[in-house]
Amino acid sequence: MTENAPTYIFKSVAIDSIDLDDQLTSFSLDAPPDALQQSIKEVGIIHPVTLTPIGDRFRIICGHRRVKISSLLKTKEIPARILDSVMSDESVLMLNLSENQV
């Protein structure tokens, strides 16, 4: 791990503590695919979403579609990788872009 690399805490987070309206890092214009919804329904979340703390709530860095589907399925908690410190909007965007590179 490099000196400036973020560190994370892994834990389950209540869906209602995640700000679903914050779209800073949501770049998908399409609805989540049915296959993703079916997969989450059958086996749950395989890859934790990435969140950053904002006061007593969380901002989504990566995993908007997984959180949205989990909310629609009335899931109470979701596995998450939480940054252990608050990051600037620019740093959050860079982390999202790095994680979602193809």
Automatic annotation (TrEMBL):
**Record SUPFAM superfamilies:** ParB/Sulfiredoxin (SSF110849)
Q: Which residues form the signal peptide?
A: none
Q: Which GO terms describe its cellular component?
A: chromosome
Q: InterPro entries under this entry?
A: Chromosome_partition/occlusion, ParB/Sulfiredoxin_sf, ParB_N
**Among the record's GO biological process terms, what is one?**
chromosome segregation
Where's the ParB-like N-terminal domain? 11-101
Protein name stated in the entry: ParB-like N-terminal domain-containing protein
Q: Which organism is it from?
A: marine metagenome
